[in-house]
Amino acid sequence: MTRLKILAALISCLIFYAVPSAASENLNGAGASFPAPVYQSWAYDYNKATGIRINYQSIGSGGGQRQIVNRTVDFGASDDPLKPEQLKKDNLIQFPAVIGGVVAVVNIAGVKEGELRLDADTLSKIFLGEIKTWDDSRIKTLNPKTALPAKPITVVHRSDGSGTTAIFTNYLTSVSADWKSKVGEGKAVKWPVGIGGKGNEGVANYVRQTPNSIGYVEFAYAKQNKLAFTQLKNRAGSFVNPGFDSFEDAADTGDFDPKKDFYTWLNNTPGKNSWPIAGATFILLAKDKTAQSAKAAKFFEWAFKNGDAKAKELVYVPLPKSLKDKIRLYWKLNSIQ
Amino acid sequence: MNIQKRRKIESFLALSFSTAAALFGLFWLIFILSDVVIHGAAALNLDLFTKDPVPPGAEGGGLRNAFVGQLLITFFATLIGVPVGVLGGTFIAEYARGTKFARIISILSDIMVSVPSIVIGTFIYAVLVKPTGQFSGWAGAIALAVIMIPVVLRTTEDMLSLVPWTLREAAFALGAPYYKVIVQVVYRGAATGILTGILLSMARVAGETAPLLFTSFNNAFFSTNMNQPVASLTVTIFNYAMGPYETWHQQAWAASFVITIFILIITILGRLLIKWRYKK
Amino acid sequence: MKRKNPFDLSFSLLTAAASATVLLLMAGIFIILVKESSLSIEKFGIYKFITTVDWDPVKEIFGAATSIYGTFVTTLIAMLIAIPTAIGIAIFVTEAAPNFLKGPIGSAIELLAAIPSIIYGMWGLFTLAPLMSRYIEPSLQKAFGDVPVLNILFQGTPMGIDILTASLILSIMIIPFTASISRDSFNLTPAVVKESAYAMGATKWEVIKNIVLPYSKLGVFGGIALSLGRALGETMAVAFVLGNKHHITASLLDPASTITVTLANEFTEADTDLYLSSLFYLALVLFILSFVVLAVAKFFLLRAERRYSR
Q: pTM value?
C-alpha cells in the first residue's frame, strides 16, 4: 500500500507540474507557411528579448483563417486577405505584417537559378498541362541559349489551403483567360496536373526530390534551399529576377487602406522592375479576445521596430514606415493596445 | 515424368516460395531498420536532447521540446487509458463473464482497436479542441488514451480469463468479497499479462502521429503546460521530414531512430515478459 | 450473495462504467461525425457525395469518389502483394522452416507491425521513392510498355511518389497481421490429421494444400479482413508518398489521394464550413467502411474460433 501511496504522490506531483503557472506567457499563432520563416525567427528573438513565447505553426492560410474563426489560436495568419465583409461577420481585424514574392522553381539538370526565362503565357500553360515537355518550342523561344531536356514536366503544387496558392492563382487568373475559365483562383484549386506537397516546405521538398519538376514557392524557401528560381516577364515587358528590389518595387504600388482592412493584391503591378507575383501576408486577430489580441499586436509592434533587418536577411520586404503608422492607428481605432 | 517426381517438384516449389516470402518480409525489416539506424545514428548528438529548435534554416538546435512533449503526452495517455481499460476488462471478464453485454463489448473493442486513428483525431478535435478553443496537450493525451483503452481492455479480459476459476473459489471460501478476490488474487495472477498489454499499448500509441495532428498540435518552444499545444516527436518528424531543410531532415532521422528503438524495446520486452510468464 | 458488500457493489459499478466507455466512445464517434458532417450531408446527400469526382474547394463542390477510389486501389494492390506473401510466411514458419528458425523469423516478421507508420512514411519518401523512380518503375515500364491493357497501368512519368509506391509500403505494413493470424490458425490444425496424411505418403505441400489450408481457411480470411481494415485506415505512411492528387487514374505511376491522406492534409486548413463539414463526412465514410470490414473480420475469426474449439 505504501508503494501505491508513493506512486500516487508522484503522479499528483507530475500533474501539478503539467498544470500551468499563470505567469508563463504563451501565445499561439497558426496559418500561412509563406511568412513562417520570418515569424518563427522573430518569435525566437522576441523570446530571447522578453521571455514571451510566440508559438507559430505553419499550417497554411486556410488553416490560419479557420483556426482563428474557431478561436482555437490567438492569432491567425493568411496570405489571402479576407474581404472587410467577411472580417465583420467573424468579428476579426486584419493587417499586413510583411511583403514577399512567389517564385517559380525548377529542378532541371544543368539549369542554374535565374537562368530559365518564362512569361505569363508559358507559365500558365505549364500549370494547365498544355506544355508537357521542357523542350517545347514555346519555352525554347524564350530560352534560346539554354539546353532543355526532352523530358516531361512534373508540376508540383500545394495540397493544402494556401495563401501562396491564392497569390499564384490570382496572378495566373489576371494574366490568362484560359486559366480564369478553367481553374480560377483560391487557396486551393482543382489542379489540372501535378502532385501536391504540404506547405511551402512540401513543395520545395518535392521539387528537390523530383527531376524535371516545376513548382512555386515563397522566395525565401527557394533561396534557403538553393532551388533554381526562374526569371519572369512582368507587365512592363521586361524579364526580372526575383529579389529584394523587384519585390519592393511591387510593394510600392500597393494600395493599403485601413478602411478596407488593408485588403489588396500586389500581383502584376505596372512598375518597370516589379516582380509580377508578390503579395503582403496578413495577420488576423479576434476582436473579442482583447487580451490575447493585444499581446499579439505587441509582438508585431516589437517586430516592426526590431525585425526589419531579420526580414531582409530572409528576403522579405519590411513594411514601409508610413504603412506601419497606419497599422498602429488601426489597432487604436479597434481598441487594441 | 512420372507422377511421383512431379509431386516432389511441386512440393519443392511451394516450399521455396514460402521461403522466398519469408525472405521478402525479412528483407524489408532489415532494409527499413538499417536505413533508420544508419541515418539516425549519424545525426544523433547531445544537443538533440538538451536544446530546443532554432528558427528554420539556422544551424544547430535540438528537439528537447518534442522529446519531453512526447513523454508527457504518452504518460498522461497511459494514466487515463490504462485504468479505464483494466477496469473495463475486469468487468467483462469477471462480473459480466459470459453475458451478452460482455461479448458485445469484447467484439466492439476488437473493432475499435483498428478504427483509423485519424478518425479518432477528428473526433477529439470536434469534442475537445473546438469547444475549449484551444489545441492542448490534454486533447492529444486523451486521443491516445481512446486508442489505448480497447487494447488494454482486451488483453486484460484475456489475461483474467486465463486465471483458473478454482483460485477464485478458494478465496471465496475464505469469505472474501468478490472485489477483494479480484484485486488481491486475480490481478496478482494476471499481473504479468496485464503489464504486457499495457506495454504493447504504449508502444502502439507512442508511434501515433495522425491523432495528434489536430489535438496536441505542435509547439516550437519547450512547454510542459498541458493546457497549451505541446510538441511531439511524431508530429515533428512529419513536419521536418516534409520540410525542405537538410538540418531538419537529419533531426527527423535522429528522432525516428530514437522513437523506433524505444518502441522496439518496449515491444520485445512485452513479448519476452509474456513468454517468460506463460512458458509451458 | 457475494454482491452484498457495498465496496463490491461500487467496484462492480466502476468496472461496468469503464467497460461502457467503449460503447460510448464508438457511439460518440459515430454521432459526432454525423453531426459535424450534417451540413455536407444535406448539401450533397449520400449517393451524390460518394459518386462525385470533383473535389473543388474554390467552387465548393466536394465529392468523395476520388478519395474512395484512392483508398480502394492502394488497398487492393497492397492486398495483392501482402496476401500471398503473408500466407507464404505463415507456411514457412509453421511447416517449411527448420525448427530453430520458426520462432525467431515469426517474431521478426511481427516486428514489422511495431515500426511506427511515420517511420514507414519517412523511409518511403527518402529511400524507397527515389529507388522506385530510378530503377523499378522504369523497368516496369520497359517490361509492360508493349503489352496491351497492362501498359495502361504503367503510363506516365515515374516519379516514385505514386500509387505503386504507396501500395508497396502499405503491403509491407499489413503483412505481419495476416501472417501472424494465419500462423496461429495453421498451428491449430490437429497434428494427428497431418501425421496420418504424411503416413500415407503425402508431400509437405499436399498436406498444406489439402489439410492445413482448408482447415484454417476461416482464420486466414479473418486475418485478411483484419489487415484490409488496417490498410483502409493507414494515414501517415501513405501521406508521404502518394502525392495528394484528387483524381481517378488507371496508371499506378500517377499520384492519388486516399480518404486518410485528404484528412491529414486538409483538415486543419479547411477554411469554409462546408469544406470542413465535407472532411468530417469523409471521416464518417471511412469510419463506416472500416467498421464493416473489421466486423466481417471479427465474424470470420469468431467462427474460426468456434470451429477449432469444437
A: 0.87
